[in-house]
Amino acid sequence: MTSSSPTPAVTREQAEEAVRTLLRWAGEDPGREGLLDTPRRVAEAYGDWFSGYREDPREYLARTFEEVAGYDEMIVLRDIEYESHCEHHMAPIIGRVHVGYLPAGKVVGISKLARVVDAYARRFQVQEKMTAQIAHTIQDVLQPQGVGVVVVGAHECMTTRGVHKRGVSMVTSCMLGSFREDARTRSEFLRFIEGRR
Length: 197
Prior knowledge:
The strands form two sheets. A five-stranded mixed beta sheet has the order 5-2-3-6-7, sandwiched between helices. The chain is of the alpha+beta class and about 200 residues long. The longest helix is centred in the C-terminal third of the chain and has 16 residues. Helices cover about 40% and strands about 25% of the residues. The protein folds into two domains: about 40 residues, Orthogonal Bundle (GTP Cyclohydrolase I, Chain A, domain 1), CATH 1.10.286; about 130 residues, GTP cyclohydrolase I, C-terminal domain/NADPH-dependent 7-cyano-7-deazaguanine reductase, N-terminal domain (GTP Cyclohydrolase I, domain 2), CATH 3.30.1130.10. The mean pLDDT is about 90.
């Protein structure tokens, strides 16, 4: 949140009425048979799409494992699928995230990395911000030697409106610690996410 005051609560009924208003503004009749349940369905969908606001991504990384037989090489989780929504047009962003980190004595369950991605993706987002949020959360909580995050996304705000360009994807990255400072570490990470060894 950018505001210092809390966001006022919105009731389910208010949310559904807002959907009816948008339907009328688009030229539809919310009382039409096919649209009668649409406000309820949209409110339920929003509850799922934006569940990240109810989650603390840092909590997913709280439980770590130190009994890893001294393992200190890079850990990479590739192709984490995500669904998000652009905060400018509320249009979907669909893509994949690649996460890597160089542990410093402790590791985290790999499903937790995917949960961190989901917690940030399931909010209104700008891809650049989401990329940085994922990387900084992993760095802050796990305190590894370094973190690398690469996000690839197809933005429906560009493909279904405006310039109408299909087949375009955006790539963003955030490299911290050794991933930023050591070209060899960064190169190894990029090779891993490209599927090369």
